[in-house]
Structure formats: C-alpha cells, structure tokens
Write a structure and sequence with these properties.
With 97 residues, the protein is mostly helical. It has five helices and no strands. The chain has helices spanning 12-25, 33-38, 41-46, 57-65, 69-90. The longest helix is centred in the last third of the chain and has 22 residues, at 69-90. The relative contact order is 0.10.
Length: 97
Amino acid sequence: MGIRKSRKGVSIWNIFKQIMCNFYDGTSRHLTCFDEIKRDEGYRAAIENREEEMLSSHQVKRFFKSFSWLSGGAFRKILKRLFIWRLQIEMPQFKYR
C-alpha cells in the first residue's frame, strides 16, 4: 500500500507489519526497542526490510498519536480478537463466549 502521510514517510502497510512483528516477537514491550531492532541486520532480513524502511521509536509514537480517541476503541477490539485467535491456537480448550 502506498498510503503515507508524507512522501518521506514509511508506508502504512510497513508500519503495521513492523508493529505486528514486534507484538508477535514479544521480546520487549517498550517502544525504545524499535531503535534497537532498527540496527539489527538479522531482524531486518527476517522481516524483509531495508535499513531506511525500519521504524524508530519516535515514528511509532507519532503513528499511535495520529489515532483519535474514537478510533482507539476499534483498534483495541482488533487487538483483542487477534489475542483470542492466537490463544485458541495455543490452547484449543480455551473457549471465549
């Protein structure tokens, strides 16, 4: 997807990809980890990004601040559904409602 806030920015698809990879990895819950993994050549190769495509912690903060309070609820619902989906894969006996 080529949706960007400015020409210099990273594409929205790439932002979501990196954030979801970070959530899935689970090594760190801190946004500063984006500065660390930006320099990690192995991580960049694993998610198939060039160095200039990697996000900094500042870019991630700006991305999350661009959502209004109203859209935050929708984002939480998506994350909740992803969590339940993954939990049911890991623990098939888990039933949600």
